[in-house]
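Input:
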Amino acid sequence: MTATSDNNTLYRIVSHLCALAVAVFFLYAAWGKLGPAESRQFAVEIGNYKILPAAYTNIPAVILPFIEVFGALALIFPATRKAGSLLIGGMLLFFIGAVFYSAIILDLKISCGCTGSGSGAAGWSVIGRNALLFAGVILSNLLYRPAAARAEAAGFEVDPVLPGDAATAE
Amino acid sequence: MKRHIGLAILILIASCGAGAIARSTWYNKTPGYPHMPWVKDAVPATTDKTPNTSKDPQKDMDPPASGTNGQSHAVASKESPAEVCGCEKRIEGFCVAEIDCVLKHLAAKDAIIVDAREDHDWDESRLIGAVHLPSSAIYENINNIMAVVPTPQHMIIVYCGGGQCEASKNVAIVLREFEYTNVWLYEQGWEEIEASGRFGDYVESGD
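Output:
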């Protein structure tokens, strides 16, 4: 085994670990929002953000946990990772914006609602955690991306020993 | 890239479908929970038909639990909670109770007092006899209310930390979902309870 192939393996492992960590967090978060009591409570938490009119909070309260579940599952599998990343990454950006708007700009003292009831106050810590998760999503894609595609995108000739091009290297 | 975007849209559609199925089967068929509409009525029309709207909102209320004789509150003139509590201000369709109103009902023990604050505030101190229904776990603890409210028309006063307190509004809205029709908000809440110094005997501390 060469040093390059070791790197390839390491990159792939880190990529999978990042994806798995983010996916597990989202599955855990969704678990706390699925159910007759939990979904209704989640609608209350969404209403607290003052982004949606109170009448429309049930729609995201019912659908969002399922997007989290399916998005997280898509993130785990390499074949669907990019689609999962689009969903999870998009949601994370939206959550960061929502917390920033409601908790920081409007200065509302509200519960985050991120993982269901009792998930702590919305604020900078939640923004930081979401930013970290977003970085995890980005890393899981960057490190898994085949080397050939990366080199081509950068305008270089394809180098067969670039990290990620495991099939060629081995 | 188009393929990934297409797949992401497919996942979104599947999520909407799963949500719709869960709502129409699991969520709405679970006994004990009110119907969960996609779009809620912001202020249900029934609110204005409740006893809250009358000049004397207490007239339809249950008799006081601690009444000493048959005439107690109905003829108690100035001392009557009914006269102290006027529904002059409303928030989200709920009557707002002022400090005198809350004190009268505390003394008469004829209303259910609900504390909508979080656990750490509740553990520190609370009104004696209050029922804890934290805003962040309303549905989990709704049974606490069901166990003590004798009828849907019984007066319930919800308080929270004070200020722009969303917690008490959230709790009151959920109570209305469960068809409690005489829910009042004590908007000033704990801030006023502490600052006024008038609740001395009605406040208890610690676990």
